[in-house]
Design a protein that fits this description.
Shape: globular
Oligomer: single chain
Strand content: 25-35%
Number of strands: 31
Radius of gyration: 21 Å
Distance between the termini: 43 Å
Structural class: mainly beta
Largest sheet: 5 strands, antiparallel
Helix content: under 10%
Number of helices: 1
């Protein structure tokens, strides 16, 4: 019996462009021109954004010094001798022996691979069309609706390593129920719980929504869409979301009032935290004048949220391509929890790192997603934004941070997304194999050489660019540009994976 089937046997589930400025980029090799969904031009010489400077240098060196954690006591893992699973997970097929309770050991709903708060088991949809995806490594991703109207997809990333720098025709699953209409419009943020249920959050960052404060739940078995929670929001929408297995709650950033909401799996608001004021509430907030239908100001706006090692990491949106600041950098902060219930402790908020200007630019773009790799390093993906609800491309990257003497420090542009460089679309996740892959959403991954690929890029740990990466178009249509419609992604975690280690004590 395979690894993922065993996890399910143990009761664990087993993955617009908004109106505004349009862009045009010319590929020097093909003469092709890239246009946004709104179609207007913006000249950028040699296919790169001129404000961001020269194309990023590529580094393939791996200096991570991979570290893995041991298995939890009481859980027996035995190899079946099967060949390794894919280029993504890279682990042996195993049998996991049930503990006396019938579940892997861990607090809350945590499986052993989620020991430090990372979560996400594999969906096991009963739809016959999903059968080929069972027992396969997959990723789940959001996107803005195109002609097909789907905003949620599962992509098969299993099998031998594909030929790099070419479109990989990976199998893609979309359920008929997963159209933009079912989610009230656009969704961006995505997370999975320890049973494989998927959660997505309404957004305005690249499209419209009629349900701006809603977190939706996609059932791990039926694939049915339902409403988990409706947060106070009259228009701006939500940023990102993350499930914490210790507290069995979801954290969601709210672009209207600047708060991070903690929601339980029944949809109740457990607590809120506001970065700019340090205010923590039990239950819903009671800010005067909120909700008012307006985006909260820059500096008060949080986007990425990620639970890790007893702290909630989050990004603060201080500037972007359209509102460059000479004094304020985009930032990554963290805050500890009071206890296992996951209530933030305002007195523990710490600045973890700043987001540098790309290629020596004087500004950066906001970080929309954070992930922690098996090596313990932090990955932070920018998304190019012109304004509150206007998104662009080719001015953002995925940064890699290493903690040195207690401080997270950027290791340079080790992950170059896209054939048109710096095309991060703001989603990033990883597998938990020591020599695994980092997966990122992006634009112009292949740009008429020979295909037009917009979707996800998988790059080996240690970094690289498209020349050593797997490229997958998000909707398998490789003749048209799907610019600025790529969203966030998550890679479900095998139950036997070694979790990311906690940050070293500096």
């Amino acid at each position: 019996m395979g690894l993922f089937a065993n996890l399910r046997r143990l009761g664990v589930g087993v993955l617009v462009s908004a109106g505004g400025l349009a862009m045009s980029c010319s590929d020097p090799g093909s003469g092709a021109t890239e246009t946004s969904q709104s179609g207007g031009p913006l000249t950028t010489g040699e296919g790169n954004d001129t404000t961001a400077g020269a194309p990023a240098a590529t580094s393939n060196a791996d200096s991570n010094g991979a570290t893995t954690a041991s298995d939890d006591a009481g859980t027996t893992v035995a190899s079946t001798g099967a060949p390794p699973i894919i280029f993504d997970v890279g682990q042996m097929d195993v049998e996991i022996v049930e503990t006396s309770s019938g579940m892997p050991i861990g607090p809350g709903s945590c499986r052993q691979s989620e020991a430090y708060g990372a979560a996400g088991a594999f969906p096991a949809f009963e739809d016959p069309a999903y059968a080929p995806f069972i027992d396969r490594a997959v990723l789940v991703m959001t996107s803005n609706a195109l002609n097909q109207g789907h905003v949620l997809r599962v992509i098969d990333i299993d099998g031998p390593v594909p030929v790099p720098d070419l479109n990989h025709p990976a199998p893609i699953y979309t359920n008929p129920a997963w159209t933009s209409a079912a989610f009230g419009g656009s969704v961006f943020g995505i997370t999975l719980d320890s049973s494989g249920n998927i959660y997505v959050a309404a957004t305005r960052v690249y499209g419209n929504t009629s349900t701006p404060g809603t977190i939706y739940r996609v059932d791990a078995i039926t694939a049915a869409v339902s409403v988990l929670a409706e947060l106070p929001n009259q228009g701006p929408g939500l940023g990102n979301i993350n499930y914490d297995c210790h507290s069995e709650t979801i954290y969601a950033s709210n672009h209207e009032d600047g708060r991070i909401y903690q929601v339980d799996l029944q949809g109740n608001i457990v607590s809120t935290y506001r970065h700019s004021t340090g205010s923590v509430t039990m239950g819903p907030a009671n800010d005067p004048g909120e909700p008012d239908g307006l985006f909260t100001e820059l500096g008060d706006r949080v986007w990425a949220v990620q639970s890790h090692a007893g702290r909630l990491y989050y990004s603060v949106w201080n500037e972007d391509s359209g509102r460059q600041s000479a004094t304020e950098d985009n930032e990554i902060w963290s805050i500890a929890y009071i206890d296992d219930a996951g209530i933030p402790d305002a007195a523990t908020a710490e600045l973890e790192g700043v987001v540098p200007g790309l290629n020596n630019a004087i500004y950066s773009n906001p970080v929309s997603d954070i992930s922690f790799a098996a090596t313990g390093w932090m990955l932070a993906a920018e998304r190019t934004m012109l304004g509150d609800a206007q998104t662009l491309a080719h001015q953002s990257t995925t940064y890699e941070y290493q903690q040195v003497n207690g401080l997270w420090q950027v290791q340079g542009t080790t992950y170059v997304v896209g054939e048109l460089p710096n095309s991060s679309a703001g989603g990033v996740d990883h597998d938990l194999a020591p020599d695994g892959y980092v997966w990122m959403t992006g634009d112009a991954l292949d740009f008429y050489t020979p295909d037009v690929v917009y979707g996800v890029q998988g790059t080996p740990y240690g970094g690289g660019d498209i020349t050593n990466s797997t490229l997958i178009d998000h909707d398998a249509e490789i003749t048209q540009q799907d610019k600025t419609v790529q969203g966030d992604l998550e890679v479900p975690i095998p139950g036997d994976a070694s979790p990311p280690p906690p940050p070293p004590q500096g």
